[in-house]
Amino acid sequence: MADLGTVKTQFVTFCETPNELLLKSGEKLGPITVAYETYGQLNADKSNAILIFHSLTSDAHAAGFHEGDKKPGWWDPMIGPGKAFDTDKYFVICANVLGGCKGSTGPASTNPKTGQPYGLGFPVVTIEDMCVPQKMLIDHLGIKKLMNIAGGSMGGLLAQKWAIMYPESTESCILIATNTRHTAQQIALHEVARQAIMSDPDWENGVYYNRTIPARGMAVARMIGHITYMSEKSMDEKFGRKLMRKEKVGYDFSTDFEVESYLKYRGESFVQRFDANSYLYLSKALDYFDLTEETGDLIEAFKPAKCAFLVVSFSSDWLYPPYQSQQMVKALKANDLDVSAILIESSYGHDAFLIEVDNQSKVVSHFLQRFEKKSNAVRS
Amino acid sequence: MADLGTVKTQFVTFCETPNELLLKSGEKLGPITVAYETYGQLNADKSNAILIFHSLTSDAHAAGFHEGDKKPGWWDPMIGPGKAFDTDKYFVICANVLGGCKGSTGPASTNPKTGQPYGLGFPVVTIEDMCVPQKMLIDHLGIKKLMNIAGGSMGGLLAQKWAIMYPESTESCILIATNTRHTAQQIALHEVARQAIMSDPDWENGVYYNRTIPARGMAVARMIGHITYMSEKSMDEKFGRKLMRKEKVGYDFSTDFEVESYLKYRGESFVQRFDANSYLYLSKALDYFDLTEETGDLIEAFKPAKCAFLVVSFSSDWLYPPYQSQQMVKALKANDLDVSAILIESSYGHDAFLIEVDNQSKVVSHFLQRFEKKSNAVRS
């Protein structure tokens, strides 16, 4: 399979005064810049577009390489020529979410009213709010109906909400390792991460831009995240009780075990690439997510949806356990929707949606083929 | 069932110069004070004694009430007249571990060489090291052979090690919700907690006594702990998505969900009752624990053991999952030891060993009766 080669992030701005976006909280926000990337070519009747939603700490850079980078985008094994989201056939779009820190408007952006970064002056945004500017992007690109929307983890929350908010806007929807409402344990894990960040004296109530970043709190938050992304089994297979110093424990508080070193490394590298306030805002949006919030019932919540669904879960995912996907499938089916579901056996935990490329690719490409309009494909 | 009423912690000191204890790390430590409590009466031939080992953040105060306290000791539903560890029949002992902060020598104790608290000058102690002063206590009480030793979680690690180190010293051993070696996930969860404490600027490399304690780091560490002590199901049953403000989310970073409030409360109250350095030392001792360290093999590791075993695990315990108890049982049986095992169905997660009193009591009292010497019972 070929690579996408070099790709570039693009930007578009909506909601400029006086057309600010009315958020779910009642607050208004504008202007809103959306950072996005596209891969492949939009066909003549614009019927081959796929919108991919990213997870909590990902971004618009889903595939290909940025100039000079050695690592490709976060879902590169799934997106490209001949891959599951086949850019020889489809036009794939991925945008950074509202509230993020990778080019779209978020707490690190400049507040036009103060000339300073928003910080905690940024309004709390919900998954629903995040969908709106992405819909504006799709309209801006002149796409009336997407062939597919897809997302894993947080991305799956956006995809569900989108399918309900804009039922006429997509043929199909792929939901991977996700759920319909955050449970107490999911909220609890996020709250500990938030407390770790907000306890760091360098956080300074969110006013740390151009000063010292709350690196220690962020590192701890990321370490917690990483434990939840792996399974007990995958951690044990990868690290077990392997030691940093040959066969010898130090009897001190330096790093003895490889798993400690790995977590520290992941924690420290995350600090450099992600904004602490964005972590607070996005994790909060996830915790607020409850599809049954207004209807009180999941079947009722999915009622407006019209597209076909593919629901993928992974056996060892304990952050978004398969039973939660099953509840989703049941509610979709109760609405007489076209639903395919698959539980993929994997020991990789929640991270499986980024790692289990082979099995996922088969299922995804098979599903997508159903919605292709052959006559209009860029290449046949 | 009657209560034990008011109980008192007692103290005894061993290893005074020049008889310092040689630790596994090669360092020496002394004097060592052991804080302990006893419940019931030792019979004439001293054959009715049971030694109970506590978990990570517990202490010698296992049952009864301290003068003026409204809450009893940590395992009070299991220890007392007519209870599982029946103090009408048995003499029950519980001692605070070496490295702890509830009366036994630990990092908050005064270093006789400096006149200051040890802090990080305290040597790293292992589970094996913790057993030694408790054996001195048993010798000091004139008990040649215990009727039983028992422990849940960290207490189970001490009990296993004891059964191997002092095979002639006990008739039986009860291991609850525990395992034979800390896995990568268990190490990882502890390491995040340690990083949270050590990242708190008030920790000051362990020199915070009589200054500001590292309360924020400790609270985060405890919150992580609490999530691991509960199961996903018990969290959802207890809290679900229940809100603090009636039916309304705040769209801000204050406490929205009850589960957030609960964790904050548990975190903050913990700070007042536990020493941060002790948390570092004890969690490190748990992580160093590997019964196969010297033998490379679990069956071989249990070879010196001679007593009868009861192994109890709980279905929803994901911190010390039942499969780990099963490995233990298999290795014990391979040594032709007298082993009983039970998996108790429970939704309470790891905390089940403190909560599932009825089922546990039946199993424990039934097992203990086998080792009673009727003729010598205090009361018949």
Short description, anyone?
With 380 residues, chain A is α/β, with parallel strands linked by helices. The first copy, chain A, has helices spanning 127-140, 154-165, 184-199, 215-229, 232-238, 258-273, 276-288, 298-301, 322-334, 352-355, 357-369, and strands at residues 10-14, 21-22, 28-29, 32-39, 49-53, 79-80, 85-86, 91-95, 148-152, 172-176, 308-314, 339-344.
Describe this structure in words.
Two copies of one chain form a homodimer. Chain A is of the alpha/beta class and 380 residues long. Chain A has a domain at 10-181 and 289-376: Rossmann fold (3-Layer(aba) Sandwich), CATH 3.40.50. Helices cover 33% and strands 14% of the residues of chain A. Chain A is built from eleven helices and twelve strands. The first copy, chain A, has helices spanning 127-140, 154-165, 184-199, 215-229, 232-238, 258-273, 276-288, 298-301, 322-334, 352-355, 357-369; strands at residues 10-14, 21-22, 28-29, 32-39, 49-53, 79-80, 85-86, 91-95, 148-152, 172-176, 308-314, 339-344. In chain A, strand 11, helix 9 (322-334) and strand 12 form a beta-alpha-beta unit. The model of chain A has no long low-confidence stretch (mean pLDDT 95). The interface between A and B is large, with 58 and 58 residues.
